User: Fold these one by one.
Assistant:
Number 1:
Amino acid sequence: MPPVADLVLFALALAAAGVVSGLLAGIFGIGGGAILVPVFYQVFGYLDVPEAVRMHLSVGTSIAIIVPTSLRSFTAHRQRGAVDTGLLKSWIVALPAGAILASVIAAMISSVGLRLVFVAVALLVALRMLFNRDHWRVGDHLPTGLANQAAGVVIGTLSGLMGIGGGVLNNTYMTAFGRPIHQAVATSSGVGVLISIPGIFGYIWAGWGLAGLPPFSTGFINWAAVALIIPIALVVTPWGVRLAHALSKRQLEVGFGVFLIFVSIRFLVSIYA
């Protein structure tokens, strides 16, 4: 067991991550998982959580935290009238289905595999955001019908595997079809709600009864970390919403891209160091 002083230090680190998570939830419409997953991975490693379950526990715990932060962010953005509620209603089955599929895959994939999925998707999205040009648009209107449902399932699945609320992928998806980044960010907060709620149950099931999980864990969710971070993130999220509406489209895109590259590099280091 680590010394008490070290545990206090890591508790403070998690608290700081809660502040960043809340800001990200408001600014980018994401649940903050892109920063929480690597933080959890390091903390759980220090607490001697086995490598075989460490990344899974990090992703599952992040998913649990996304529920209240996404709800908080969604409420704040909806009050500003920026959410595309029609798109969210069309994905009310597709996004949860993707989240459940992600938990099934997580039950079978290795820790390295989960980290590589995280890195690959994050880098692709970052490059698109950093070098975005209007003529890179896939189209001027979002798909409908089966194509729209397929997009929802893919976003739900990849987000569930990354431990994020779907904002990373939904922002890219909506802007690729000409939607304003501010509307994409606002709608992404609702996407996070539809992914994270079924994701909690999926990650509990995927890790149920496995050896090596730390105290206060149910499956791949550690409730001690959840309880520490959620109150902080809920307080901070509205600040991020106000900041998001004060920034320009290009400032949001560049900030989002740089952030994703930083996180990707951190995970590559964890794999190959």
Number 2:
Amino acid sequence: MLVSESVGQFFLDSEGHRDRLEYTEYGSGDSWVVLLHGQLMPRRMQQPLARALAAEGLHVVTLDLLGHGRSDRPADPQAYSVTAFAEQVLALLDHLGAPQAVIGGTSLGANVSLEVAAIAPERVRGLIVEMPVLDNAVEAGIIAFAPLLLAARFAPISVTALRLATRWVPRRAVGFWPSIVLDTLDQRPAPMGAVVHGLFFGRVAPPARERRTITAPAIVVGHPADPIHPFADAQMLAGELPNATFVEAGSILEWRYRPERLDRIATNFALSCWRAPRRARRASRSTS
């Protein structure tokens, strides 16, 4: 089934700065779903799932968070935190006129989805959380991303050279997921360093005591043998969230190259969230 697709943008004003964020809409209607990308990746990584969801009648939006994809990329580390990203998602919902949405994401996007549910539970219809980065991922995260921060700060020419080299590769010639990898490598040193710095030294996700208060229905997808996104984190999160279902992926590649099963699970879940009666709006943040 073909679905409509359109690109949009909106602007955020804060402390004398005006930042532009870009998004893509798939489908139409009032059953909103927002999908968020992984760290340093573009929103286009969620295109296959967005199309699958929209084909079933959901109105899906993929967003480039600040510092990613085609959104603005300020070089100030203070511009980047999981909380700031969550506020960008809420600004997107306001811009679209969407009172609520199912919020979902991968890796960084998973953590941002949890943060949205923590700071604005009344806006969240449900959660699709793939590969959250929580307590068991600290060491792996440092190993994976510290070299990027060091390269951006002390060897910026290496980041620039890689960016220039990857830009010569035709995206259509290499296939979808290799092209996403190439787009992820298309970084500028200062903004990339700022993103990693901001996330390293800021709040990574809601702490356990806050996660336990998130009552939105959720599916949590974990991958075995994934060192950066430990299986134990996904299992732990599914146990903490009062209304969560744990889904075990066959591998980190299943949702990339054999997505039918997980697409079906995500679609059925999102549709069920919108078929359920709307929860009463809560005026303030949940506390424990």
Number 3:
Amino acid sequence: MKRLLSRLLEALITLWLLATLCFMLLRAAPGGPFDTEKSAPPEVQAALAAQYRLDQPLVAQYGAWLGDVLRGDLGPSFQYPDYTVNQLIAQALPVSALNGGLALLLALALGIPLGVFAALRAGKWIDRGLMLLAGLGLAIPKFVAAPLLVLLFAVTLHWLPAGGWGEWSNLVLPVIALALPNIAYCARLTRVSMLETLSADYLRAARARGFSETRLLFSHALKPALLPVVAWLSPALINVVTGSAVVEQVFGIPGMGRYFVQGALNRDYTLVLGVVLVVGALIVAINTLVDALRGWMDPRLENDA
């Protein structure tokens, strides 16, 4: 319970610092949410500023916004006046979660078997070929991979739609674009960890007792070899979240990343802050779950903590 309360306090302080820093950076950026209304009469501009508290001192704006957040109200959107930030995030979060979750599952489903297979064939041509492909997957950024996938599978081959949302076929290319670098990194990480595990003393002793290689792999080597992969899940998820902004823009997906980019470009302060807070809370929760999973897989970590 003491450790849980400590983690909760750390999470709250982290989210407060994140929100405060983002608030100050947005206000320090040039321009404002209603710059296009400069041609409007002064009384209209004053009414807009009063409606969104932009006529108040910065400290008062921050205090009012923080009070609303503590009550669960992320405020109205400046650029989508018919919606609150809570409504926009409620619409976008399931979309981004579906894309990101499928991309991470695909990365694990392909990366772990490829890494294990490469480790079992270490030094052979198949191992070198797989690691070369993994290096290429890491080298190609998402903003290059996504348009290339559209060009190949949508424009040239006409196999899949180039964008949009609503059909399962719309998920294929975005999920692949998000998963590609994670597949590559997962395969490389699994290979290195498996090679290290296979050379451990306790596995040599098990071999001397006559255990089969299959039993050694699945009963004794796989679980400890996957510990670094489990630890990598946190940065992998952050990578998926940050990469979704580019992928959702390319494929026209109404997710969190797209709202974040549009909100930043339009100086929609409340929308950007809302997305940052929700994503930050998700990352903190995921880190806690990953730590718990690592502790279950290796009790020594819990004892050290």
Number 4:
Amino acid sequence: MSTRRRAVLVGAGVLVVAALIVLVIGSYRHQVSVQRSDDPRSTTAEGTRALAQLLTDEGVRITTTDDVDTAIARSDQRTLLVVASPDLLSDEQAAQVGGATYARLLLLRPRAAALRAFGLPVDQSAPAVGTVDPGCADPAATAAGAIDPGDFRVGYASQAGAVALRCYPAAGGAGWLRVGGPFGPVDLVAGGVSNDLLAHQGNAAFGMNVFGTQPEIVWLMGRSAAVTASRSGAGPTLLPAWWAPAVVQAFVALVAVGIWRGRRLGPILHEPLPVTVRAAETVAGHGRMYARIGARDRAAEALRAGVRDRLGRVYGHRVSDSDGVLALSAAVANRTGRPAPEVARLLAGPPPGSDDDLVTLAAQLDRLEQEARRL
């Protein structure tokens, strides 16, 4: 195989490996992105894929995004803007979301940080336990009936004057609260719509009635990286998003080039000598090494190969396989009077079983060569 062709094949292999790595990383990132709590793409127990599917079957269009600007751009007067994990938003992002255009704004599982960021006059309360009845006259709640609040983390309590709707009460708070804020009415939902609980009690009807009031939903997932940068005062990372797969690709390319250009270990004793030495010293050195490692088979083959090559040149026989050995043995036997099988055994027989046998073989080969050359 030519060097150019080898280079093309290596390059193609590197590209294939790099493409596979990029696909794996992309798939991994996608899997990670859809395993978050309250994500309508997630099929985990904490996700909301089941609710999203029910709403989609009813004709509701759902757009999921992690970017605040994208959520604001896609919201209009026909949109329910759902903010999942709102505690991950900074104060500036909360103000952006609150000031956007939408039909309704719903915060899913907000805690104290989100309540403060959105400027809502609401405090956390203890979450409800056991089956909870609607406790209000709102048609969405009364049609759903009792729900299982097994995934409630907190409840919401507010001053009576600020509350427009208070359903599913427990422990001084409520699981669904609509309260006035700086940007208008905001719905606070403590949960009850996760995949794990949607089939319990009236949870599915509750989720459909509360989240299905508009023909379109923009579902904004908060991002912890944005919160960390905003609240710690740190700037954005200086590394681009593609740096990790680029490093992996560079490493693969480096390994491939190293294998391609690296020196291959050749057969024993076939490397050229670094300096010119006398032939006798080379032979003696090889002999001592063979003796040290007990390589009688290699030593015997080296002796036989030398005799075959020299006699082959004398008798005009090219010895490259067993047929060549038989032809040379017949020619030598004809000239020396030795039996052809005996000559063949000396030129290409089994390896000696001991050092003494190796010495005897060397003497016999030397005698055979002298006889074949003398006649």
